[in-house]
Write a structure and sequence with these properties.
Blueprint lengths: L3 E4 L2 E4 L4 E7 L7 E7 L6 E6 L5 E3 L7 E2 L2 E2 L4 E6 L8 E11 L2 E6 L3 E6 L1
Parallel strand pairs: 2-12
Antiparallel strand pairs: 1-3, 3-9, 4-5, 4-10, 5-6, 7-9, 8-9, 10-11, 10-12
């Protein structure tokens, strides 16, 4: 059973920074790792992804402010969030996707709350 455990959420003032961590119970090599978020009353949306080859993709709303570094030795993916805005307030979820023999394996963490005060 694959487990993804997020940490690092909390309350921060606008303009501040937070770093989220997602520790995986398996090697993340070969996985596309991602962060998604869901604000109250809204659908879950993509924040950032990174492929096993290191290609990254960011939502337009976070480009230039967030990055998604990984540490393969620690099987951990991070979300470095700078210049936070109140609209970044949401529950942030870690995601791991792996394709093998035509089948998609999709795993989610339990989420961590990020609240940005104005």
């Amino acid at each position: 059973q694959v487990q993804l455990v997020e940490s690092g959420g909390g309350l921060v003032q606008a303009g501040g920074s937070l770093r989220l961590s997602c520790a995986a119970s398996i090697s993340i090599r070969g996985y596309t790792m991602g962060w998604y978020r869901q604000a109250p009353g809204k659908q879950r949306e993509l924040v950032a992804t990174i492929t096993s080859g290191g290609s990254t993709n960011y939502a337009d709303s976070v480009k230039g402010r967030f990055t998604i570094p990984t540490n393969n030795a620690k099987n951990t993916v991070y979300l470095q969030m700078n210049s936070l805005k109140p609209e970044d307030t949401a529950v942030y979820y870690c995601n791991a996707v792996w394709y093998f023999v035509g089948k998609k394996y999709d795993y989610w963490g339990q989420g961590t709350q990020v609240t940005v005060s104005s």
